Amino acid sequence: MNSLKFGTSGLRGPVTDLTGRPSFAYAAAFFASVGAEPGMRREVVIGRDLRASSAGIAATVATAAAAAGLTAIDCGPLPTPALALEAARRGSLAVMVTGSHIPDDRNGLKFYRPDGEITKADEAAILGALGDIADPAPLPAAVPAEPEPDAISRYRRRYLDVLAPDILAGLTIAVYQQSSVARDVLVDVLSALGADAVPIGRSETFVPIDTEAHRPQDVAFIREAMASGAFDALVTTDGDADRPLVADARGRILRGDVLGLITARYLGADAVVVPVTAGSAIERAGGFRRVLRTRVGSPFVIAGMERAARDGARIVCGFEANGGFLAGSDSPVGDGAGRKVLPALPTRDAVLPILATLAAARQAGLPLADLVAALDVGETASDRLPDTPSERSGAFLRRLAEEAFRRDFLRPVGQPHGVDEQDGVRIGLDGDRTIHFRASGNAPELRCYAEAKSARDAEELVRWGLAAAAAAMGRTA
DSSP secondary structure string, 172-221? Predict the structure, then answer.
């Protein structure tokens, strides 16, 4: 059962290790720790994605809620941000059953307080309250949750009540539906905002769409779909719709941090919070009063947004390299008499960056490719060195933090400057380049990220970085 771990957002592991007693135990620990705080409403809303195991695990969570004396509310399949929105509306706890972008044989749980995602301190409290997940005793009798079919409609209205009904008029958008839990919401919302939304690629089996590490078959499908020239863009999300994917008319997938950059500009943000893995174009091209960088993971981004708000920022948002966008404060949208306010939703969302990016291109009268080119965001690349135990990667990162070793290590590729040690070691290089090494938080691997003016240079820098790191650790890449 050690395979079940909290990662950058939620608990994940193999379905075989999560189904039954383990999911009951983790949910019970959540209710007993976070849900036991004074004044907390004795209610939990439960949602799920469309993978094969999610409905059964959601039923187990409802049983754990009943055993803890909570009323369980079944919101059915819906995007994670829609469930978080419903929890905030009700002032209740929430549990989302989802493995996000990982394969169908794995799944997970995301836990929410009424005010948003749980913190790292909450994760520690859950682990502290966790009982024996291998307990052979049978679970209590199943207790059906009360149905709540309207939560997804309220999420849809979040955007339709604020954005102008013709804001996407004239655009033809391919909606790659696959098995995203937002596949029908996307078609509905895009159509209601004036676009010609064309569903393609719907699947009744789970498709693990990763919005950062794109599978070759997904890249090929997108390029083939866009080759006809019939579409201005293609949009989709990961499994639980908290990470967006947008491709331009040529089938080129836009980077997630670029979607975040465009969205933050569209909302008029004066402070943005991003993890250290996001591109440096955010400082160079964003035009924001403040950019705050954090460790990787939405809990750290949320903490950064709270800090920016305390420091006096007016419109605060955050986003990750995977494109998930967090609205940390209410944001005015539109001009003049038609100006409305989009309420805060401090959890990763895929629909907002999709809509804002398309609206920004429409407003500028530019194809997506030209909108991105005008930002001069450069290129990024990343890869990993698998089978690298944490003690080995940790020792390498500690050496890399030392100035003398870092200078000698990087001499073949450039002069180092601007070191950030929040999460691994991120180093600026001459020629507007960066190289970043960090240990994975949920796998035995060392990751390398690079930025450069061209894709080729970024990829070559990553290849060199992994080979050099392997040599420094006494192994081959």
Answer: EEEEEEET-TTHHHHHHHHHHTT-EEEEEEE-SS-----SSS--HHHHHH
